[in-house]
Amino acid sequence: MTPDDEASSPETLDDPLDVVVDSPLWAAMPDADAVVRRAVAAALPRAFRDAELCVLLADDAAVRALNARYRGRDSATNVLSFPALRDGVPNAASSGLPVPLGDVVIAYETVRAEADSEGKPLAHHLSHLVVHGVLHLLGHDHETDAEADAMEAQERAILATLAVPDPYAGRDCA
């Protein structure tokens, strides 16, 4: 493997990715930083490998405050995405400059409870939510059934590269 191959591997991603651990609860998952970095690297298309983004590992109280302030929903949620660009993402390769994608915020207690109730390893659920959040930063959404189907298909494909099972398998579609 050449140094160039290693730099483009989906298993590593160097700066400009910031992983900020803002809650001591994440100490229960010592490999959280590595899990986040692998998931971000897998989710970003090659043209966006130099994109700037931050993944904030927070707690339910912080996510609840953000959710209330920016979405008008006074409750915690598992993941929030704050895209830096509102009108879509420009072609990063053409500018030569890093593209600011935005921020992804993840709530420990909610994510832990979901993983436990669904019988999933916390690392798998965290990977899924990071991928989900990054896809939102790239302009993907799930407001309609067609958008949801397309986004979920992308998530499954990305997660498969990380050896994370289909997070939607067995879901009740009724």
Give a summary of the structure in a few sentences.
The protein has helices at residues 3-7, 32-43, 60-71, 92-95, 108-118, 122-137, 145-161; strands spanning 17-21, 52-58, 79-83, 100-107. By secondary structure, the protein is an alpha/beta fold. Helix 5 packs across helix 6 (122-137) and helix 6 crosses helix 7.
Secondary structure: elements and pairs:
Elements: H1 3-7, E1 17-21, H2 32-43, E2 52-58, H3 60-71, E3 79-83, H4 92-95, E4 100-107, H5 108-118, H6 122-137, H7 145-161
Parallel strand pairs: 1-2, 2-4
Antiparallel strand pairs: 3-4
Helix pairs in contact: 2-6, 5-6, 6-7
* CATH uppermost class: Alpha Beta
The CATH superfamily bears the name Metalloproteases ("zincins"), catalytic domain
Number of strands: 4
Q: Output the structural class.
A: alpha/beta
Q: How much β-strand is present in the residues? A: 5-15%
Total DSSP helices? 7
Order of helices and strands: HEHEHEHEHHH
Uncertain residue ranges: 1-14
Instruction: Give the strand order, joined by hyphens, for the main sheet.
Output: 1-2-4-3
- Average pLDDT confidence is 87
CATH topology: Collagenase (Catalytic Domain)
Total tally of structural domains? 1
Radius of gyration: 16 Å
End-to-end distance, in Å? 47 Å
| Major beta sheet summary | 4 strands, mixed
Shape, per Cα inertia axes: globular
